[in-house]
Amino acid sequence: MSLMKHFLGAAATLALGTGVALADPAIIFDLGGKFDKSFNEAAFNGAQQWAQETGGSYKEIEMQSEAQREQALRRLAETGSNPVVMTGFAFGSVLAEVAGDYPETDFVIVDAVVEQPNVTSIVFKEHEGSYLVGYMAAQASQNNTVGFIGGMDIPLIRRFACGYAQGAKAANPDTTVIANMTGTTPAAWNDPVKGAELTKAQISQGADVVYAAAGGTGVGVLQAAADEGKLSVGVDSNQNGLHPGSVLTSMMKRVDVAVYEAFSADELAGGVQVLGLSNDGVGYAMDENNAELVSEEMQAAVEGVKAEIIAGNIEVHDYMSDESCPALSF
Amino acid sequence: MDRMPRWADIVLIPLINLLLAFLISGLVILAIGEDPIEALKLMVDGALGSTYGWGFTLYYATNFIFTGLAVAVAFHASLFNIGGEGQAALGGLGVALVCLMVPWPHWTIALIAATVGAGLFGALWAAIPAYLQAKRGSHIVITTIMFNFIAASLLNYVLVNMLRPAGSMDPATAKFPEATHLPTLTDFLEIFGIPFAARTPANITLIIALLACVAVYFLIWRTRLGYQIRALGKSEPAAIYAGISPVWIIMITMMISGALAGLMAINNVMGEAERLVLNSVEGAGFIGIAVALMGRSHPFGVLIAALLFGFLYQGGAELALWTSIPRDLVVVIQALVILFTGALDGMVRTPVERMFLALRRRKPQPTRGPAE
Asked: What start and end residues bound the annotated signal peptide (chain A) (predicted)?
């Protein structure tokens, strides 16, 4: 132990020299990992974009287990990072406690609402974006059967499923929607093997377009659909390029924009920001990878629906408003 | 006397093991293009350079003391309890039930009840593999590790379907009521006028852990039961000959071991998170094995080893935070420490032993028998 004391002395003197620059922004990626090709990766892309444009640097932590959330949050706040952005509803209860202890730090949480003066909550109208991709899926389906694979079975993911089912039924009332969830714990965000199994099961039931709202699990869903020669729909990030010609489109949830703007803002306003179709917070992805899959008529139709939703003529039911869904039973 | 001195066994060999582990870790860090000296400084500074760092180090160490003692007690009976992970998880369930079901008036009473709950749940979870070992001869290593998985699944089920509050998406229990919140180490040290960084997870469970060390010492070396445990561990036929019932000793040893692992939950569930979340144990059950190995199954050794691993945990987290050294590399460092102190122990021990013997041979040895 005397060795340790020796190091201690050396380190203490050095600590003054290596002082870390203050007020760097920080981001915490929830379970699933920052390279999940989906939700967390969107956040990562936003942070990267900020770093490239400003030349700044930011701190990041990837959650490895449920039990670390509070420590990660406190450690970033304690070391002077500002703002601290976190992705995932699971931070909600933790942040509600921690935020009050660090009144000088701005916190931004994506996917949950935390009512604290120094917390900006960003939530998305996933049901609207899902409605559009559901509409497209039903149009592209030849068997009149579309699939949905969620990650963890929580109201937030049911909101995706419900919007998707409504969109599919709106495009074609005869459409059958098969919905499955990967699991009931956060491990379900990162289980591509099970995602692939569920996809194959849905395809064997006749589904020919499968929508994955499952974080890293979706990688397996998209892969399985491509292997079976069926279509899939990506989520959160633009996943069209993962399997060109097989991913019909992606339900874009602009977590990247949200993170980018949180990092860029001089001062965060606090309160709740709701991002939907009207302010481009959600949408569907079109690029060269899926140009051949989406016909002119399809795109025109879905653009029409989008305009109707923005105008308020089509009301997409939000599962989380009353925990029920008119188009799908879980 | 053909053994090396005691101090060499207890201090020198672990130290050499540790240095070797750090040396190899340094080479690994060098190989990925980072400065190992800088990394070590960062670890030491992050874990021990401030009372804030100490708060985390001691918090982790508290966990490891409990799981280390759990493994150590079982070792004395030659039982390899690698189910600390599951036993601690079940201990967490015990704590959560105690804290949520009863409106406690004050934390002291809640702490006593939670200690009983945590110990009881951990002990009962260890009792099943113990029974299978004692009565059926199912190997304890196999059964305890399988029980880790059963515990994780059971906890998943209970948290998702039973204890999750209505409307919550996160599979975790509700927050424990205010009256069950334990004082932090900061609050405790304030009584003595010692300033300590606020908002660290270290709490008064540390004191319970230290008491547990003392209790285990007395149990193993100062009680009849401890003697029986050690006798069974040294030789089962001899123990039977001496009238010791192996079934009884295996059961009671494993239950004490499970209870100690379960007690960890007071620290992480009641003291820190103040609610039960998934994976609350975070591998501490497995670290306990390394801690017990390194501590030579002695409570004091366990305490020192637990502090070392607490340092590695906290220092590693700092490393991952401030450098591009990935967190996985910290696991590599921990693994190297375990490898050198546990599995490769003989690699260092044999040459050191030879060296001591060689030194001794040069001196006159009056006590040597003529046969040598």
From this structure: 1-23
Number of other CB atoms surrounding residue A314 within 10 Å? 17
Rounded to a whole number of angstroms, the distance from the CA of B85 to the nearest CA of chain A is: 14
Domain hosting residue A193, numbered range? 126-252+282-322
* One-letter amino acid for residue B37 of the chain: I
Give the per-residue pLDDT at A304. Answer: 94
**Do the chains contact at A11 and B41, CB–CB below 8 Å?**
yes
The DSSP element (H or E) to which B143 belongs, if any, is helix B140-157
Which helix (H) or strand (E) segment holds residue B233: the answer is helix B224-234
- A321 touching B, CB under 8 A? no
Sequential DSSP letters for A61-84: EE--SGGGHHHHHHHHHHTT-SSE
Chain A residue nearest residue B171, CA to CA: A185
Structural domain boundaries in chain B: 63-301
Identify which of A93, A98, A100 has the alpha carbon closest to the alpha carbon of residue A114.
A93
User: Which amino acid, A207?
Assistant: A
How far apart are the C-alpha atoms of A70 and A83, rounded to whole Å?
Answer: 16
| Polymer length in residues for chain B | 372
Q: H or E segment at A178?
A: strand A176-183
Exposed e or buried b for every residue in A14-35, given b needs 16+ CB within 10 A?
A: ebeeeeeeeebbbbbbbbbbbe
Show the tokens assigned to B187. Answer: 């609050």
- Number of domains within chain A: 1
CA distance A269 to B329: 39
Predicted confidence band at A91 (pLDDT cuts at 50, 70, 90)? very high
pTM, rounded to two decimals:
0.83
CA-nearest residue to A184 within chain B is B160
Strand partners, A209: A146, A231
Interatomic CA distance for residues A148 and B277, integer angstroms: 28
Is pLDDT at B20 greater than 60 in this prediction? yes
Q: For position A166, which CATH number holds? A: 3.40.50.2300
- Residues in chain A, total: 330
How does residue B364 score in pLDDT terms, banded at 50, 70 and 90?
Answer: low
d(CA B34, CA B46): 17
Q: Which helix or strand (DSSP H or E) is residue A96 part of? A: helix A91-98
